[in-house]
What does this fold into?
Amino acid sequence: MADELEVSREVPIQAKIQVRDVVKVEFEIQNLVQEIRQCDGPLTLLNELNMKIKMRMNSLKMNMEKLEQLAKEQDKDSDTKAILLIKNQHDSELIRLQSSIRKANLACKARIDQTERESLFSGQASSLRNRNYNKENLAATTSNITKDLMSIARNSSATVTDTQEEYKGLSGVIQTSKNLLNKYNRREVTDRLLVVFGLILFAVTVLYIVKKRVW
It folds into this structure.
């Protein structure tokens, strides 16, 4: 870096401005690489950072080409050599940046993959817990339904038993009423016979009295 600063003092002002633009873009790329190193996902964020790096890399290459073209336009060979020397140093920096970008991307993708695997395993474990929970709920519900059915069956049996008892009681009442009616009917027939017999006896008595008086 000290050699570069020393050489940059010897180049024309136009070359210094161009070198400043190159250095500015390099710092921007380095900052983006650092963001990738610290990135844990998601993948969309990594893609956005790489898109920004791609744009900065294109800008860096264009500035390097301008620096090279500027070196060719110099009248003094010393200026040309000084500019090309600076350009070669930034070519090396470009290679280091490309290597850093690849390593940062590999590390970031590895972290994202690890996170996705952990999320997948966590989701599977959660799904398994939910399935077990659903099975337990189903078993509990089935048990409750069975208990309810048994309770209904017991209540129905008790109701049937009560109904049978009531039916028996009602049958007894009906039988008693029938007996009373039969007894009443028999008594009514007897009463009628007694009345008829009394009428006959009364008639015979009247005839006998009449006969006695006539004779």
